[in-house]
Please model this.
Amino acid sequence: MSSTEHSRQTVVANGQSYIAPQKPTVVITIDGCAVEYLTAALEKGCMPNLQALLDGGAFSVDALSEMPSFTNPNNISIVTGVAPAIHGIVGNYYRDPHGVERQLTQPSDLRASTIHAALHAHGIPVLMVTAKDKLRRLLSVGGVPSVSVEKADSLPIAPYGDATAADLVGRPAPHIYDWDASIYAMDIGLAAHRQAGPIGLLYVSFTDYVQHREPPGSALANQFYSAFDDRLGIYLAEGFLVGITADHGMNAKHNHDGSPRLILLEDVLQEAGIKGHAVLPITDPYTAHHGALGSFAWVYVDRTDRDRAIEIIGNAAGVTEAYTGREAAAAYELPSDLIGDIAVSGDRSMVLGRSASFHAASPPPGHLRSHGGRYEQPIPLILSEQPRPEFLGSRAGRPHRNRYIHDLLLNGCTEQQEAPSGIGSVQKPISVAPFGE
Model:
């Protein structure tokens, strides 16, 4: 299908219309990228391509991620354009209505369509690339070609026949705990674009191993952002419209001696005579990153103990928010049927755990850096082109959130007719039904 034909088409995903990309477009989600990482790297001269974009008038704002500020809910908000209340992914890990704790990685967990799936159904070339394989199955819903760096050496990458992502790149993939695993994800997208024809919409999602390990301005962090900037220059030279954001930020969560600054929620409640069960939604297979300790948790208690438990937890040093499930659903835009009795958030330097006995089996890494709370919501949002003034005017008053980046790119950065504002104002719209129903 020609780019001219694409430019006349729109698709609908979750009640929002999107103009089909008129040229190759990529959204890059830098996992764990607090604004300070970019600021430090720019100040050191490590990101000349990004600096040139910013100096040339690129669109750049301080934005917010979703709460809780974890990988899965934010990546899915970015690719669906909606809040977790609609798409149903409330964390990396949760307790289901049957009381079973599990990862949120199955396509059946997703309650909304992705923008990529809507474009794919319309015959527009799309590709999802993620460093972490835990995201791959969620991103592939609707038959969207998807690949992870973790499986780059073994799984075929549709629609490229028997070729793996490593075959396309021409070298083996790094380990997921290597500093350049995310850079390799960018290389997969470039290789696919070059070898299989232009990609209409590409999504590249990173891993936050470097950000969990190193603070902004460190040698390794600047090395990482320098390599990112090198690939950014290649994408721009290839003619891509580029959007850059993050799923969450990152902060130090440790004492001066390197031990974690930690509240053990079940132990705090037990001391008060209350039996509670804490669920840590940061939990995932990447224990070297964070040891399952983040700044957000759900607590389950008997209904008769709920108000007292909220009072006890809310008064603990380092806790900034303790809400009922209903309050949390409203405050964080979450689905009320998938969350706990109590939502707990820690401050900038505090993480939340279960009990001393639970964490003794798997001690957290030293000098822990992690995320999950309000203090990891601030993130960058950068576009290589300015959206049209009339488009920005139509969105005036809307907060800057990572979930709106596709709207900004596809509907805002276009030279054709006014970007559509919703269903009913489009030509030839195609709507994709929610998955998992």
Observations:
- The domain at 3-250+375-412 is CATH 3.40.720.10 (Alkaline Phosphatase, subunit A).
- The CA atoms of residues 111 and 254 lie 37 Å apart.
